[in-house]
């Protein structure tokens, strides 16, 4: 048995090193390219921002100020209340009075999907930006995303999302999300995943994907459904991983909440009608199993190289977004992440509940 475990150890670390080396090189080249000085764009298209929210009175002011400080300012900000029970109206009142282009509507139904539908259809511009109420876009978020979309002639654009917390659960959630979105950085013009915290879509694309999107048996407004349907309909999609594309959002405060959130995300894969996410999840779970078996031997020939490889990988992954809270948890993340992935993969096989939260 020890010979089998040793073979798994060698295969696992070599495979891991090759994959992450490729990703690191690819990401660094992309980040260097995106970091080059950009020409000023005077003819960027107007856009609206749609923000569905539920019980976000503590987060809405910060989000609105972040949107108002955008270098390329929105023509309309549409806030869609999804059956909130807090005092959000008191929070919004001064903004609605001071800025006429901020619009507030109530969701006629329930759930984020319905709220997104009503907000997008109310937008007066061709481009619509989507973000979450607990998010903080970079001041050049819209400028960078639309400039990239204009350069590449895109119809749908995804951007990077990071967390701002320092606890282990928040750091693990941020690293996991950046790692997922980095795959779209690499594929660039053919993203494998996106986040509704940083997403721009044209109205004509929305009209084309809406019928199938609304039929998906999930009340949450899943962004990846939009992506895959748009790709099948022949629209040009892309992912911009430049520093200014980053939206900072809140991560779950505990490991239990993080596992529950990621399980919900992963369990939606069966509805995607796309083999790519299934193949990626299957490969990551398989690699995680190999790593868990190798770690069970407490073999330093495996553990030390893995930590070193992860150090280089995480540094390249987070450098453009200046997020380095992971450093204090490096050994724990390096050795615990395969277990985290395996738990998510197993849980997602049994999780088929509907949900209506983010």
Give your account of this protein's structure.
The protein is an alpha/beta fold and 358 residues long. It folds into 2 domains: 107 residues, no CATH class; 225 residues, Spore Coat Polysaccharide Biosynthesis Protein SpsA, Chain A. Helices cover 54% and strands 12% of the residues. It is built from 12 helices and 10 strands. The protein has a 7-stranded mixed β-sheet, sandwiched between helices. α4 runs antiparallel to α7 and α9 packs across α12. The C terminus is likely disordered.
What is CATH's topology name of the largest domain?
Spore Coat Polysaccharide Biosynthesis Protein SpsA, Chain A
Poorly predicted runs: 353-358
Secondary structure category: alpha/beta
Please identify which CATH superfamily of the largest domain we are dealing with.
Spore Coat Polysaccharide Biosynthesis Protein SpsA, Chain A
Q: What is the CATH architecture term of the largest domain?
A: Alpha-Beta Complex
State the name of the first-level CATH class of the largest domain.
Alpha Beta
Distance between the termini: 45 Å
Largest sheet properties: 7 strands, mixed
Key words describing this protein structure:
single chain, 3-stranded mixed β-sheet, 7-stranded mixed β-sheet, 358 residues, alpha/beta, Spore Coat Polysaccharide Biosynthesis Protein SpsA, Chain A, 2 domains, disordered C terminus
């Amino acid at each position: 048995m020890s010979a089998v475990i040793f073979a798994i150890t060698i295969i696992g670390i070599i495979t891991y090193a090759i994959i992450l080396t490729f990703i690191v090189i690819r990401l660094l080249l992309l980040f260097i390219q995106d970091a080059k000085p950009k020409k000023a764009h005077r003819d960027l298209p107007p856009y609206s921002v749609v923000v569905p929210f539920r019980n976000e009175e503590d987060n809405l002011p910060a989000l609105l100020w972040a949107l108002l400080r955008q270098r390329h300012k929105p023509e309309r900000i549409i806030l869609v209340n999804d059956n909130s029970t807090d005092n959000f109206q008191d929070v919004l009142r001064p903004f609605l009075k001071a800025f006429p282009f901020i619009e507030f509507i109530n969701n006629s139904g329930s759930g984020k999907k319905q709220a997104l539908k009503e907000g997008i259809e109310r937008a007066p511009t061709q481009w619509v930006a989507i973000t979450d109420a607990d998010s903080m876009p970079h001041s050049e978020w819209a400028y960078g995303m639309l400039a990239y979309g204009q350069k590449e002639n895109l119809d749908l654009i995804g951007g990077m999302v990071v967390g701002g917390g320092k606890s282990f659960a928040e750091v693990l959630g941020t690293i996991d999300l950046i790692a997922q979105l980095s795959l779209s950085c690499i594929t660039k013009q053919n993203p494998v995943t996106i986040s509704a915290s940083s997403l721009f879509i044209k109205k004509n694309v929305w009209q084309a994907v809406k019928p199938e999107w609304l039929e998906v048996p999930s009340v949450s407004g899943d962004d990846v459904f939009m992506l895959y349907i748009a790709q099948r309909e022949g629209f040009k999609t892309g992912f911009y991983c430049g520093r200014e594309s980053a939206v900072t959002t809140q991560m779950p405060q505990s490991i239990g909440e993080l596992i529950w959130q990621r399980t919900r995300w992963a369990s939606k894969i069966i509805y995607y009608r796309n083999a790519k996410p299934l193949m990626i999840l299957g490969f990551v779970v398989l690699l995680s199993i190999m790593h868990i078996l190798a770690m069970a031997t407490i073999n330093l020939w495996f553990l030390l190289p893995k930590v070193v490889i992860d150090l280089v990988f995480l540094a390249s992954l987070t450098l453009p977004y200046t997020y380095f809270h992971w450093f204090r948890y490096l050994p724990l993340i390096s050795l615990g992440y395969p277990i985290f992935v395996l738990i998510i993969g197993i849980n997602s096989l049994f999780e088929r509940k509907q949900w209506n939260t983010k």
